[in-house]
Design a protein that fits this description.
four-stranded antiparallel beta sheet; Jelly Rolls; single chain
Length: 148
């Protein structure tokens, strides 16, 4: 469990009521000291957590048809990883690699979906935030890939 105050620091959770925030905090944990160069996830793997970067940096990469691994975005403290925790088939759509020592807050994906099903207001708020995040990430990826 992490503190609800930790979650409150991030804009994704700003509109969530205190009771729901406490429930989210109860299904979250902190994972520290992930070294630079660690592969956090690979395209196609099941998403086990919705992650918040507490500190550090993570490159989001796509494997191109020619075999080249292309970085399309670099995420930093406060950014979310694993938005596919909300979206079927609940698999990663890219690769994620740390560029420096990184600390994450992990929210269990199965428990999160169950909580959102039981608390539709929470589910709605988080889905809106993930939709905004997706729109931004798609635009960044489009710009990066267009520069090829």
């Amino acid at each position: 469990m992490i503190s609800p105050e930790v979650l409150r620091r991030y804009p994704y959770f700003a509109g969530i009521d205190e009771a729901s925030l406490r429930q989210l905090a109860m299904i979250a944990e902190e994972k520290q000291h992930i070294p630079a160069g660690a592969r956090l996830f690979s395209e196609g793997e099941p998403v086990k957590h919705l992650d918040i970067i507490v500190s550090g940096e993570v490159n989001i990469q796509y494997l191109l048809g020619n075999g080249e691994m292309r970085t399309v975005d670099t995420l930093v403290s406060g950014d979310l990883l694993g938005f596919s925790a909300f979206i079927e088939p609940y698999r990663y759509t890219s690769f994620g690699t740390t560029t420096q020592e990184t600390t994450l807050a992990l929210i269990d994906a199965l428990k999160l979906r169950d909580l959102c099903n039981r608390d539709p207001q929470l589910g709605y708020r988080l889905t809106l935030e993930v939709a905004k995040l997706l729109a931004h990430r798609l635009e960044v990826a489009r710009v990066q890939l267009a520069a090829v």
